[in-house]
Structures are given as C-alpha cells and as structure tokens.
Amino acid sequence: MVKKSPLDDPRNAAHAWARYRQIMKLLMAVTVTVVVVAVGLLYAFNGMVSVHFYIAVALGISFTMLLAGGLMGLVFLSNGTGHDEAVDNQMPDHDELWSPKDDD
User: Fold this and answer.
1) Average pLDDT in the chain
2) Are 2 and 88 in contact (CB under 8 A)?
3) Percent helix, strand and coil across the chain, each to the nearest 5
C-alpha cells in the first residue's frame, strides 16, 4: 500500500511552499547581486563592447542561477517534508529482471 505524503496535509504543504518561496526570494536577491557585479566587472575591464553582450551575460547568469536554485529548492522541499519516503519504489531485483530463460 502506498503511504500518504506529508504534503497531502494542507498545513504541512503551506509551510513547505512558504519556505520554498522564501528560498526563491533569497536566491533572486543573490542572483541580481551577482548579475550586477558581473556586468559591472565586465564593463570595468572591457568597456562598452555591445549592449547585446551585456544582455546575454545578464540573461545567461540569471537563467542558470535561477534554474539550478529552483530545482535544488524543490529537492530540498521534497526531502525536507518526507515526501521522498512516501514514494513506492518496489522494483524487482536485478536477478529477477535479467535472469536467463530456459528454452528447454
């Protein structure tokens, strides 16, 4: 029988998602800071190359940091709430899947 996930309880789910939103707000602040510092350093060392260069750098850093942070936040949410333990992963043993068949 499949165990119920702790996220099925509305109070647990509300607390977990509020914590996730808090982590994402912090990540957004860190991302904006990193982008401003990176673009500032690039401008200081290279001067005005092209506005498209700075837009690409800002978007690349932002997308990478927010995607990685968002996915890691979901992993922390899943593990921290006990949702991972509720998953039924009853796979057969390797020997049962790959045993040679007797054709005799």
Assistant:
1) 82
2) yes
3) 75, 0, 25
Q: Of how many residues is the chain composed?
A: 104
Q: What is the DSSP letter of 90?
A: -
Look at residue 98 in the predicted model and tell me its pLDDT: 65
- Rounded to an integer, what distance in angstroms lies between the CA atom of residue 82 and that of residue 85? 6
Whole-model pTM?
0.69
Read off the amino acid at residue 79: N
CB within 8 Å of 31: residues ≥ 6 apart = 61, 62, 65, 66, 69
- Strand ranges, E, within 1-104: none
Of 88, 90, 86, 67, which is closest to residue 13 (Cα–Cα)? 86
CB-based contacts of 12: which residues, under 8 Å, 6+ apart? 6, 81
- Residue 74: count of CB within 10 angstroms of its CB: 12
- For residue 61, how many other CB atoms are within 10 A of its CB? 16
